[in-house]
Amino acid sequence: MTEQSTGIKSITSGKTLTVFLDGDIDHHNARMIRSKIDTKIYIQRPDELILDLSRVCFMDSSGLGLILGRYTKAVELGIVFKVVNPTPQIRKILDLAGTERLIKIEQYQ
User: Fold this and answer.
1) What is the pTM of this model?
2) Rounded mean pLDDT, 11-28
């Protein structure tokens, strides 16, 4: 069994924090990803948080929980939150979960 790791890269532009996730988001790494994102939120205190999912290959319910949890945290802190560029596979998961009723999802590519 091959374990796909997830990379996290972020860019801050003005008061916008964009986090780029790369690889799989599953129960093996969701906690670590969540911790890294939350640390960036608390240190940078952005006005807007964007999660770019364009390079996410796989996501299970832990990944969905990670996204919904970051949304909740953003709302608590008064931060605008959105998800951008989900792959068709990931978009299907988000749509099936009804995520767009809460979270703005945009496609830039």
Assistant:
1) 0.91
2) 96
